[in-house]
Write a structure and sequence with these properties.
- The chain has 259 residues and is mainly α.
- It folds into 2 domains: 24-225, Rhopdopsin 7-helix transmembrane proteins, CATH 1.20.1070; 234-259.
- It has 9 helices and no strands.
- The chain has helices at residues 32-36, 39-51, 62-80, 83-107, 116-133, 138-158, 166-187, 200-220, 227-258.
Length: 259
């Protein structure tokens, strides 16, 4: 027996302002293909956490947690088709570009370490405030934040900063490829509404999730941000301290012997 609209699990919630070509079912998982494909983000995030399991804290490590959060929020959005989880999905996407923007501001020397969190959460809060008051501005906000982050990156690169740009280019190329599938779904080019195993938007999720790995690899190289470099710096300082302490002990002993 089919459920009526009034008995569908998500029918009492405010519907999302944006829909996709996969036919929504009257079930807890309304769009199976678009929902389960978000597991790719979670897998990438877990992988980044595993390779950094010995690091307690680093701003770069946020990419791992945000990747997992994107997978959860986007999965809930496609499972429910509600505005509540649509906002959660957009919020997780805002976190990505806000983190890029904040890290680039820090690298450029335009903000100091004590203000990093203030800038990060301030930008995120402002973005969410605009979204909640103007519900159809989500994509515009994301694009503006991304442009700002890339503009600062371009400034850094053109001013002669010496660093590897290839991981960022790779991440943007992956984003571009995945965006093609996003557009194909939007235009209905590959539309198969009743196919709950393959959707162009699901491909967007899987391909785009890989960009998180390359974003992490890009920002990892910077001494002020990288968990690996921070660990090496701490180890070097510890070794230097031990060496200096040993030298002082030896000199002290030599002085006593001489006396």
């Amino acid at each position: 027996m089919e459920l009526s609209f009034d008995t569908c699990p998500w029918s009492r919630f405010l519907p999302a302002t944006f829909s996709f070509w996969e036919q929504s079912r009257c079930a807890w998982v309304s769009e199976p293909a678009n929902t389960w494909s978000n597991l790719a983000y979670i897998f990438v995030g877990i992988y980044l956490l595993i390779i950094n399991r010995k690091i307690r804290w680093s701003p770069v490590k946020f990419f791992a947690w945000i990747s997992i959060l994107v997978g959860i929020c986007s999965g809930l959005y496609h499972a429910s088709g509600t505005f509540m989880f649509q906002c959660a999905d957009l919020a997780s996407m805002f976190l990505v570009v806000t983190l890029m923007l904040t890290l680039n501001l820090r690298r450029a020397g335009w903000i100091r370490p004590p203000s990093v969190y203030f800038v990060f959460w301030g930008d995120f809060g402002l973005s969410m405030g605009i979204l909640l008051n103007f519900q159809r501005t989500g994509r515009a906000i994301f694009i503006v934040l991304l442009i700002l982050a890339l503009s600062i990156e371009a400034y850094q690169y053109m001013t002669g900063s010496n660093y590897a740009i290839k991981p960022l280019i790779t991440a943007l190329a992956i984003l571009g490829v995945s965006f093609v599938f996003w557009q194909l779904d939007l235009k209905g080019v590959l539309a198969r509404p009743d196919n709950h195993y393959f959707q162009a938007h699901a491909v967007w999720h899987v391909v785009n999730s890989i960009s998180f790995f390359y974003l992490y690899k890009f920002y990892e190289q910077f001494e002020m941000l990288s968990p690996r470099r921070l660990r090496l710096i701490r180890e070097a300082r510890s070794t230097a301290t031990e060496w200096l302490y040993g030298r002082l002990i030896r000199e002290s002993s030599e002085s006593k012997d001489f006396a």
